[in-house]
TrEMBL record:
It comes from the Bacteria. Residues 218-229 have a biased composition (Gly residues). This is HEAT repeat domain-containing protein. SUPFAM superfamilies: ARM repeat. Residues 218-240 are annotated as: Disordered.
Length: 240
């Protein structure tokens, strides 16, 4: 194919990615991912920042993962500093899918505490996948500082991130379970239960944690037990 022909294809792909019809944008992202070309990376990243449809964004991310990391990584690292929340969120999501730990320095405390819940959730998911060996406990402490934040989906995302860190999250969760804020204590206790009982449902864990907090329970009562149970719980917990 001639250079002119390649340029024409690139312009056509760019137009399709900006088309007003979501089905056209979806097909364009699929085509670009099927036949990767570094010239498409900038357009894919730009579209991620504004694409309103989840299923199209998912295809855009897939298309980016099909391109060389040497091309996508610099573009995504710039995007996590964008002023647009969706741009940050999608860039973080894509970095978690690529899984290259060279992106770790970009997962800053500022992103982990981003005021936009979707950005924060994406940062938490990326962080636990990209964290270097030996830094899991420090990350758990940073994440535990966010316990009690937001609504159900945000709290569930944070719990999942902490559970992904495994035993490294234990000290941070025990500390958070003694926090003055009852919402923080309950979230910490619910996450602690999920860490030791993966089959427990989140809603069940939260309700049990609220009961324990209401009765004045805290992680200190279980600190030496090694049972992995919630403080004050004498029963065996089954799955939800």
């Amino acid at each position: 194919m001639t250079v002119t022909g390649q340029d024409t294809d690139a312009r056509r792909a760019h137009r399709a990615l900006d088309d007003g019809r979501s089905a056209v944008r979806l097909r364009a992202a699929l085509a670009v991912g099927t036949a990767p070309d570094p010239r498409y990376v900038a357009a894919l990243v730009e579209r991620c920042a504004v694409e309103p449809e989840f299923f199209v964004r998912d295809m855009l991310t897939w298309a980016l993962t099909r391109h060389p990391v040497s091309v996508t990584l610099p573009a995504l690292l710039r995007e996590v500093r964008s002023e647009r929340a969706q741009a940050r969120s999608q860039a973080l999501h894509t970095l978690s899918k690529i899984g290259d730990r060279r992106a770790w320095p970009a997962i800053t405390p500022r992103l982990l505490a981003d005021p936009d819940d979707e950005v924060a959730r994406s940062a938490w998911r990326a962080a636990v996948l990209l964290v270097p060996e030996g830094e899991e406990a420090a990350l758990a402490t940073t994440l535990a500082a966010r316990l009690g934040r937001g609504g159900r989906e945000t709290r569930l995302s944070l719990s999942r991130a902490l559970v992904t860190l495994g035993e490294a999250a234990e000290p941070a969760l025990r500390d958070a379970a003694t926090a003055p804020d009852p919402g923080v204590r309950a979230h910490a206790l619910a996450t602690h239960r999920l860490l030791h009982d993966p089959e427990a449902g989140f809603e069940s864990a939260v309700e049990e944690a609220k009961r324990v907090v209401a009765l004045g329970g805290g992680a200190g009562r279980a600190a030496g037990s090694g049972s992995g149970r919630l403080p004050g719980d004498a029963s065996q917990h089954g799955g939800q």
